[in-house]
């Protein structure tokens, strides 16, 4: 895991190689931190103006806004870091609403004593992820709390996007007969982060699936008739999305366990840990409820995109009224999939 | 201080009177927390839809966005709480940009073990503050971190507003001769929060000035010619704003110490603590740089509003090139006001 440890060489910062309380106090050290660490990575005219807020160009059509905090531990893991996750996570929340992401704000809560080099690396990851998504970081805030009052770094990103014309995805449009499609293998993120903690004694050949979904959606679902509802299965995994739909639309769902794509390392780790992959978080997958007529063409479309190579139809909406999720085992037995209630995987995102 | 302690009676929440890790895991307990604690206080069609993001009505003109985290300790203090502060703080960042606030998002990072009653009280304060400002809480997120990984609650709010037509406030418009106006006594918030910690042995008759500034600004500065730049003096106090202006506009400022409004309890506390009130945070005051011709009418206008009763002109821009802040004492001596560098008041907001 050594390639995922923070860099050893401290970046000097006015004599301080660790974040001090004074870096959060609105004075000289904060201005220098912004100038030396944040602005070089995140250069944008709005940020450079350093006003209390950013004036944006007019947003045509329907603006969409989403916010998420990120408290993942460890900060760096195979396939990403809290920096990239904080961008992709919020971009994905906009994307599954049918929006194109445009702007992002970033609020940092930093624990006193964090090495400046670690902060710099997170800023760079965040900046790279924002460039990948073509979203501008337009405004930011940094607070420093005393040692022990937070664990290293927490990030909160808020994204602003524009609803793609013609999109009307809504959980209330889910109806009996709809097919349930996932865009790829599930649970990679959750298991990769767990393994990166090093406390499980697991050495896995596995990276998080953390990735932005707006291009995949723009190239596929955004132009497909028959899409009723889209969601990214993060905390609580696919099971949480399924239960959200059963409750909101009052429908019963049936999942074919054998059809659910799961990578071997995830399956093995879940067996060892006593977890069901359906409960494990993804950070670069989507679940779509689509009409039966459109399902196979949508799966093929998804499979034609690099982020959807292993897309699959995994089940369907079987009835109305009884809000339950059933899973059919490879041998044909039907069991009820409980809603996630406990906390098997805290601080996964 | 007993009236500012959390309520003693726990609000039952499915058997749990404290926040569990499971409340942050995307499953049943999280849905019930949203249903039982957040939605009753913050009811809004967008929130009720519980999508990953909120679709907003089109924003006419120039959208303005601002984000801030709030880590204040203690959570409750005379004159406010982290809940009201998180709304007013972000509303004020929009207001001093010249924007009318419209929408707000709220991200909660909650420490495992927080009494649900404390969370509920913060939610209610936040909801009341949002109603006061006529801003809608349109989307939210909640993460729970294990006991010890955060200190009780951190909030991050992001505000979206609309720039008032005709406003062009910019630090680059500050010029020699400009008068520096404050809207009221400074330092109330910082000293009230310090006193509420109970560790200073100070018993003061003082409440935070925490308040929203958009109505004051809408009724006064927004319609006044000669306003060049407006800022709210939070972390680092008025001194931080002055230094921000000197650096950005490359001007020298001179403050008349005797003209700066300071309440007696703030002055006494500052003397005991060895603090200069110019460095102490406000949360409901503004500093404006205005043309000399307009200064006295602007001060009178501010004084005609309940939030500006003790507005005063406290100094002026005296020269260009040498970026320094000078303070003239009541006896006429001139001293240099250093930029805040240390951290006299951590977790003040």
Describe this structure in words.
The structure is a homodimer of 349-residue chains. Chain A has 349 residues and is α+β, with helices and mostly antiparallel strands. Chain A has two domains: 21-163, PurM-like, N-terminal domain (60s Ribosomal Protein L30, Chain: A, 2-Layer Sandwich); 171-336, Phosphoribosyl-aminoimidazole Synthetase, Chain A, domain 2. Helices cover 28% and strands 24% of the residues of chain A. Chain A contains nine helices and 14 strands. In chain A, the strands form three sheets. A seven-stranded mixed sheet of chain A has the order 9-11-8-12-10-13-14. Chain A has a four-stranded mixed sheet with strand order 2-7-5-6. Chain A has a two-stranded antiparallel ribbon with strand order 3-4. In chain A, strand 3 (76-77) and strand 4 (80-81) form a beta hairpin. In chain A, helix 3 (82-96) packs parallel to helix 4 (116-133). The two termini of chain A are 19 Å apart. The model of chain A is unreliable at 1-13 (pLDDT under 50). At the A-B interface, helix 1, strand 1, strand 2, helix 3 and strand 5 of A face helix 1, strand 1, strand 2, helix 3 and strand 5 of B.
Nutshell version of this structure?
The structure is a homodimer of 349-residue chains. With 349 residues, the first copy, chain A, is an alpha+beta fold.
SSE blueprint and pairings:
The structure is a homodimer of 349-residue chains.
Chain A: H1 28-41, H2 45-49, E1 54-55, E2 63-70, E3 76-77, E4 80-81, H3 82-96, E5 99-111, H4 116-133, E6 136-145, E7 153-163, E8 179-182, H5 188-196, H6 214-219, E9 227-231, H7 237-249, E10 251-256, H8 264-273, E11 287-290, H9 295-303, E12 312-320, E13 325-328, E14 334-336
């Amino acid at each position: 895991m050594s390639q995922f440890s923070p860099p050893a060489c401290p970046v000097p910062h006015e004599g301080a190689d660790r974040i001090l309380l004074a870096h959060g106090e609105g004075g000289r050290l904060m201005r220098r931190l912004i100038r030396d660490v944040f602005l070089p990575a995140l250069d944008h005219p709005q940020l450079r103006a350093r006003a209390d807020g950013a004036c944006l160009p007019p947003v045509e059509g329907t603006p969409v806004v989403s916010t998420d905090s990120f408290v993942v531990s460890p900060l760096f893991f195979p396939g990403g870091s809290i920096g990239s996750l904080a961008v992709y996570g919020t971009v994905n929340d906009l994307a599954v609403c049918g929006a194109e992401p445009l702007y992002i704000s970033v609020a940092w809560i930093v624990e006193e004593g964090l090495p400046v080099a670690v902060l710099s690396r997170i800023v760079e990851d965040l900046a790279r992820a924002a460039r990948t998504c073509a979203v501008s970081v337009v405004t930011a805030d940094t607070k420093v709390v005393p040692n022990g009052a937070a664990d290293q770094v927490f990030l909160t990103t808020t994204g602003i996007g524009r609803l793609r014309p013609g999109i009307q995805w809504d959980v209330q449009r889910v109806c009996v007969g709809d097919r349930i499609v996932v865009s790829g293998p599930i649970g990679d993120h959750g298991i990769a982060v767990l393994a990166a903690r090093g406390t499980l004694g697991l050495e896995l050949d596995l990276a998080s699936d953390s990735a932005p979904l707006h291009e995949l959606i723009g190239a596929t679902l955004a132009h497909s008739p028959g899409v009723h509802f889209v969601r990214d299965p993060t905390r609580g995994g696919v099971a949480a999305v399924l239960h959200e739909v059963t409750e909101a639309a009052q429908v019963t769902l049936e999942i074919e366990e054998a059809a659910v794509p799961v990578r071997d390392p995830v399956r093995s780790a879940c067996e060892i840990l006593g977890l069901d992959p359906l409960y494990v978080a993804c950070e670069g997958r989507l679940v779509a409820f689509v009409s039966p007529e459109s399902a196979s063409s949508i799966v093929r479309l998804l499979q034609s995109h690099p982020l959807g190579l292993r897309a699959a139809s995994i089940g369907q909406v079987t009835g109305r009224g009884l809000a339950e999720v059933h899973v059919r085992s490879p041998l044909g037995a039907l069991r009820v999939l409980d809603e996630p209630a406990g906390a098997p995987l805290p601080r996964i995102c």
